[in-house]
Amino acid sequence: MANLAKLDFVALDITMKNYLTWVVDTKIHLEAGNLGETIREESSASSQDQAKTMIFICRHLDEGLKSEISSQMKLCEETITEEDMLEKTFSTFHASNVLLQQQYMERGFIKYNQLISVLLVAEQNNELLMKNHQS
Which of 49, 76, 107, 109 shows a CA-CA span of 20 to 30 A to 90? Predict the structure, then answer.
């Protein structure tokens, strides 16, 4: 079961700096798993193979990119806008972080993925500060 959590190669970073190596690694692994046909235009691959490929690719994406992909989805026939997602994210801040919520709102984010990127970096910095404090 522990092997399911392991990645076959490095996930696509939210900054997309490792995009080219990620694409090559993805193609190699899909070809090795007999799923290479699923990523070609005019593919005749089965829906089951296409689903396997989507699962494989999603496992190799940064969490922030997964959020961006879900932002493209529709909910109950109604398109979810960037503004809706930003507002929902701000509304989920804990009550003890009202000041922090206001500071992020005042930064005037227009794109949801920009906010998520900043929040992920802030979370990583906070984790690093906590590790330094503990040591």
Answer: 76
- 82 close to 33: Cβ distance less than 8 angstroms: no
Radius of gyration over every alpha carbon of the chain, rounded to an integer in angstroms:
19
Determine the longest span between alpha carbons in the chain, in angstroms: 56
Given a contact cutoff of 8 angstroms between Cβ atoms, the answer to whether 40 and 90 are in contact is no
**Whether pTM exceeds 0.70:** no
With tokens 């998520």, the residue in question is 116
Structure tokens of 86? Answer: 């930003």
- Reduced to 3 states (helix: H, G, I; strand: E, B; else coil), residue 61 is strand
- Is 123 a domain residue? yes
State the total domains in the chain.
2
Same domain, 48 and 85: no
- Same structural domain for residues 56 and 99? no
The answer to whether residue 70 is domain-embedded is no
Per-residue pLDDT reduced to its tens digit, 35-53: 988 888 888 888 888 888 8
